[in-house]
Amino acid sequence: MHALRLAWDHIEEGIIVLLLSVMTLVTFVYVIINNLYNVFFIIGDQFEGSSEGITAFFYGIGDFIIGLAQDMTWGNALGKALFAWLIFFGLAYGVRTAGHIGVDALVKLTSQRTQWVIGIIACLICLGYAGLLSVASFDWVSALLGTAVHAEDLDQFGIRQWHIALVVPLGFAMMFIRFVEILIRILRHEQTGLGLADEAADAIKLAEEEERHQ
Fold first, then answer.
1. Nearest Cα residue to 168 out of 64, 84, 103
2. Rounded to two decimals, what is the model's pTM?
3. Residues 6 or more apart whose Cβ sits within 8 Å of residue 157
4. Tens of pLDDT along 162-213?
5. At what angle do helices 167-187 and 74-96 cross, to 10 degrees?
């Protein structure tokens, strides 16, 4: 069971890294291509009137790059789709790594027993939220699957809207599982709350480290 969970954690992290890498690469190439052709046109203008052959050479490169930019209109759409997948995969990852910000200053003023009870209630609410949105978004994806509508600018690759939207129920389902894990740990008294990030505590810790280094 531990090995399965460890493998799942690594797969989750690997998918997030892959999505971020591909999104960054596609966006970088798309931006470069859309701004590079102008450089060759400017260089060609410098030789205009003195050497028509060199001018035509640089203009030809500029025209070629413009053609690439026009053919790569799918880059922006793909970047948005990958970003959407990154967000919904990040939901579950944030729960696992305590990446979501916690607003629990008042809760921490209560007793340990009260914090434990509040943690259970909060976890059940989060489970209800994640479960509800997972089911509702699955119905939405099912409706898109029935229409078989292609994604804008990505239809040339056979990508349909339901391919992109599939990450919504998947992401909420993964988040539901992560909250189940947290609930089990709370019931076992391994933790009292949801294990969310505490910016105030992090800031104090950072300040203390800076003072030690000074």
1. 84
2. 0.75
3. 74
4. 889 999 999 999 999 988 988 988 888 887 777 655 554 554 555 556 666 6
5. 10
Query: Which pair of structure tokens corresponds to residue 71?
Result: 């053919």
User: Got the DSSP string for 96-151?
Assistant: HTT-SBP--TTGGGS-HHHHHHHHHHHHHHHHHHHHHHHHHHHHHHHHHHHHTPBP
User: 197 pairs with which residues across the strands?
Assistant: 101
| Token pair 């078989």 in the structure block, residue | 148
Q: What angle do CA 94, 151, 163 make, to 5 degrees?
A: 50
Q: Which residue has the tokens 């944030």?
A: 94
Question: How far, in whole angstroms, is CA 142 from its chain's centroid?
Answer: 23
- C-alpha 78/C-alpha 165 separation (Å) is 13
